[in-house]
Amino acid sequence: MSASETVPILINTSSEIEAQGARSVSCSDAEDVPLVPEVAFESALDSPGINRESQPLLGGLDVSYNQFPDDPAFSDLVWQAEVAIDHGIFPERISQGSSGSYFVKNQSGKIIAVFKPKDEEPYGRLNPKWTKWMHKLCCPCCFGRSCLIPNQGYLSEAAAYLVDHKLSLNIVPKTRVVKLVSETFNYFRIDRQKARVKRAIMEQFPNVGLRFNRIGLPPKKGSFQLFVDGYKDADYWLRRFEGDPLPPDLAKKFQLQFERLVILDYIIRNTDRGNDNWLIKYDPPAVANGKSAPLVPPLSDPAAPEVAAIDNGLAFPYKHPDSWRAYPYHWAWLPQAKVPFSEEAKELVLPQLTDMNFVQDLCDDLYLLFKQDKGFDRNYYERQMSVMRGQILNLTQALKDSKSPVQLVQMPAVVVEKSQSQHTSRFFNFTQRFQDKSPFFSWC
Ligand SMILES: Nc1ncnc2c1ncn2[C@@H]1O[C@H](COP(=O)(O)OP(=O)(O)OP(=O)(O)O)[C@@H](O)[C@H]1O
Ligand SMILES: [Mg+2]
Questions:
Q1: What CA–CA distance (Å, rounded) separates 356 from 389?
Q2: Where, by residue number, does the polypeptide cross the bilayer (predicted)?
Q3: What's the total number of domains in the chain?
Q4: Does residue 365 lie in a domain region?
Q5: Is residue 62 in a domain?
Q6: Residues within 6 Å of ligand 1 by CB
Q7: Confidence band (pLDDT; 50, 70, 90) for 189?
Q8: 85-97 tens-digit pLDDT
Q9: How far is the C-alpha of 114 from the C-alpha of 226, rounded, in Å?
């Protein structure tokens, strides 16, 4: 196996990328540095309705941040969440899970989205779950994923949607980065106290209060993902399908959905795809005498199972996982993973993935997304893209060779590095490197 291979390719120049930068959102975070590292968590208020404390919350929010001119429906949904919060219908923390994730509701109390604030991610400074806090404290080198840039899970969530959308996979619920404020979020005690004092001053001395930049709690930046109704953890349905297999036509349709999940996960190198991190929606035909049989002749075929890929926050590593923690894709143990990729999957993604301009466009879009983080580092971004290009290279080869997902995950990990050509700025060299070591310990 040759260690490296260099290919010159013509693609968009970096000045063109910068020109697109106008599309990126402004993100001047005025987060206050806490003086006292003390955390105060106030439980969700159980009585909805207008709560005085919530009144000035939106006063601190740069409302233009949450506007998406290219997607008015999404802007409207975020607006509904803001209005609900302003009326005391607060996001509710999801009890399961290792991070501060919240079900966001509209004014009628219906869950419309899942919000994951950056600073409440598993190893974020305001993560409310004590297990992660203990991990960080007791054994910092053994926990967390050393191949990932820390605390950028919210960007990974939005980036997974971006990849899904560009490839028309249609399995990731729409996810974008927004800012929200809610007193049910986890804040430092000092932030809550400051907000109270400012509010009191505002009430007593309105003229002084008007000089404050922000009255309420600090807004939190995070991923905002549409809530999909009627889905259950994949684990639930996969067990059911074992005992009660799907009819062949539905099994075929499910296989196509499954392949889309494989394509997504492989490209973004998801390190957290357990069977609880994807969802399936399925309405089985009515059951009679313990057997699947329609009680009345169905008017139309039962709908095929649909897949939703959620929880994409631990993807886009800047290097392949190292040899002692491999973070396998858990779908690789499913029977569906032994079936060669279908013609439909090939037709869907091969034309784009084999087009170097498409791949470069994808990298450029990810650049615009990732660079909005305060800790953005161009070198790490380039390394993330090298891993992603390597994944795309393997995937296209696997699709062309009609391999199965199991065979795909057994291919040697490769990175494709980009460097400027010495001859002209419009050319780049791409260098392929194999990461040959196979993991000796596989644990997620
Ligand atoms: N977009 C969504 N639509 C519907 N339900 C969702 C969505 N996102 C999350 N959920 C539900 O919320 C649960 C927790 O979500 P998720 O796994 O993304 O959170 P998490 O805090 O990252 O958890 P963990 O760290 O355990 O993976 C999921 O198991 C699922 O039931
Ligand atoms: Mg999860």
A1: 10
A2: none
A3: 1
A4: no
A5: yes
A6: 94, 96-99, 101, 114, 173, 225, 227-228, 231, 233, 276-277, 310-311
A7: confident
A8: 999 999 999 987 6
A9: 6
